[in-house]
Amino acid sequence: MDDSIKKTDRAPYGILAILMIGAFITFLNNTLLNIALPSIMKDLDIGPSTVQWLTTGFMLVNGILIPTTAFLIQKYSVRNLFLTAIGLFTLGTVIAGFAHVFPLLLAGRMVQASGSAIMMPLLMNVMLISFPVEKRGTAMGFFGLIMMAAPAIGPTLSGWIIEHYDWRMLFHFVTPIAIIVLLIGFFLLKDKKDKVDIRLDFFSLLLSSAGFGGLLYGFSSAGSKGWDSPQVYVPIIVGIISLIWFIVRQSKLERPMLNFGVFKYPMFALSSSITMVLNMALFSGMLLLPIYVQTIRGISPMDAGLLMLPGAIVLSLMSPVTGKLFDKLGGKILAVIGLGITTVTTYYFSKLTLDTTYTHLVILNAVRMFGISMVMMPVSTNGLNQLPARFYPHGTAMNNTLNQVSGAIGTALLVTLMSNRTETHAAELAENAMKHATGQPTAAALAEMKQQIAMKAMLEGINDAFFAATFIASVAFVLAFFIKRAKQAEDPLEEKTSGKKMAAKLAKN
């Protein structure tokens, strides 16, 4: 690791500040785009199945590149990686901002993603090596405060910009900030790195890309194509086979690209399982609530963004609090309470009606975010705490990769469930309406009835998807009872090296 950021009495706050600013704008950019999708569809004359690739393509590039970050962090300095990441992100932002056709906009988003994929694992790794285990919860908490501020202001800012300006202004707004961060990093980041004799195994990169990319593409396509489409099941099958091959190959390499040995540490394996399951449930709120609010209730983008704001603020402000509580209490009690709240509030979201009040939605979402704030960072930090320092790049890369995959799987499952159940409910409601119809309805009455059935069917489909998310969250709740406070494990490589040194010393004597 870099000489300048090895653990010392004083953490490298300057480097961390620059990295956090860079990570903040990548987070902000992601949340800015969600509310803009309907405007992009209208302006570029594209459908939902096409525009969703602005999100899916971003996740796809992340899923392919994040596994390589363990290698990149070991090979290159923080300065070089940061400048490359923020440079790619800035280039992608400029391309997207001037896009007049969808393929160019998608290309810009994917270039952005190539920079974003490097940024988060790099920041997490620097934080892990900069703070001792007993102070890591507090440090991660303040990191979370800054990172969660982006989702807090993103939707509201996006709603305001969309109502007053063209959607391209979202990218033009980010571009000068990205350029300033690039210049700050260029002049202020000065860390150096000794030459490291490590090479990337390109066949592993190919298998990783086919594995994670295939899974992400297949599951992301399921919502629009259906599970019986070759465009869905062929990539998933290819992804599974490639991933198995990739894992087997990594276990045989002396220096694997992504070390699956991190799962030998039980707390890391458990924390990864909990965060993956929670990620799948978390996407229900991020995905289904905006559909309900804008499509069924007809609430404006600005008000939809404001609805999410209190929950995002709670998530942001609670992050340093839960970080300090984690240092004192450990992760188990926080995870159990937080997942209990998350499961209950997700269940109440499965009881939405056509008359659910705006205030009820705001409060319920804020309480749900309060529960989630007690889980994500403490559970993830507890798992990483058990790893020897040599495994930090692999642990952070593994966590970020699994988050992308579980997010895509959760999105696909919930969208597919919502779509299928909406069709089922629509057929049942139409049949029931015909049974109770008296006389021949007029064309206007028939059109109004069809609209009411469509709205009611979609509402029930969303409720069914939230109910499925409740079950998913309850799985994470049960797993939380098995959490134990993690202590850093001994590095088997160091034990082996020290053993050889001891043997040599004894032989010499």
Describe this structure in words.
The protein folds into three domains: 1-195, Growth Hormone, Chain: A; 201-256; 266-509, MFS general substrate transporter like domains (Growth Hormone, Chain: A). The protein has 509 residues and is mostly helical. Helix content is 80%, strand content 0%. The model has no long low-confidence stretch (mean pLDDT 81). The protein is built from 19 helices and no strands. It is globular, with a radius of gyration of 24 Å.
Notable traits:
509 residues, mainly alpha, 19 helices, Growth Hormone, Chain: A
Average pLDDT across residues?
Answer: 81
Number of helices: 19
Number of E-state strands: 0
Give the CA-CA distance, first to last residue. Answer: 34 Å
Overall 3D shape: globular
Q: What is the count of structural domains?
A: 3
The proportion of strand residues reads under 5%
| Class of secondary structure makeup | mainly alpha
CATH class of the largest domain: Mainly Alpha
Proportion of helical residues: over 70%
GO molecular function, one term: transmembrane transporter activity
Pfam families: MFS_1 (PF07690)
Organism: Bacillus aerolatus
Transmembrane segments: 12-33, 53-73, 80-102, 114-133, 140-162, 168-188, 200-220, 232-248, 268-292, 304-321, 333-350, 465-483
Describe, in short, the structure shown:
This is DHA2 family efflux MFS transporter permease subunit. The protein is mostly helical and about 500 residues long.
Give the SSE map:
Blueprint lengths: L12 H22 L2 H8 L3 H4 L1 H13 L3 H7 L2 H20 L4 H29 L2 H32 L4 H20 L13 H24 L4 H23 L13 H31 L4 H29 L1 H19 L8 H16 L2 H10 L6 H45 L6 H38 L11 H17 L1
Helix pairs in contact: 1-7, 1-8, 1-9, 4-7, 4-10, 4-17, 5-17, 6-7, 6-9, 7-17, 8-13, 8-16, 10-11, 10-17, 12-16, 12-17, 12-18, 13-14, 13-15, 14-15, 14-16, 14-18, 17-18
